[in-house]
Design brief:
Layout: H1 10-19, H2 27-41, H3 46-54, H4 56-60, H5 62-67
Helix pairs in contact: 1-2, 1-3, 2-3
């Protein structure tokens, strides 16, 4: 939010999506998921961003998502 890339409605959506990722993920995978969602926030509001958040793992690490 400090950088202006995410607004007040989008930030909690991204946080919840990251919190719902499996705990055993490598920190790099979580960082990539966060970067992906922040990037998508430039194009989508909170509701579609919530849907994207549910699918973030499949986008950034499909092999991990499939194993889950």
């Amino acid at each position: 939010m400090r950088e202006g890339r995410v607004n007040g409605a989008q930030a909690p959506v991204i946080t919840r999506a990251l919190d719902r990722l499996p705990e055993r993920l490598e920190p790099e995978v979580v960082r990539r998921a966060e970067a992906h969602l922040v990037e998508q926030a430039a194009h989508f509001g909170p509701r579609p961003l919530r849907i994207l958040g549910r699918r973030a793992l499949a986008v950034i690490a499909p092999e991990v998502a499939e194993a889950e």
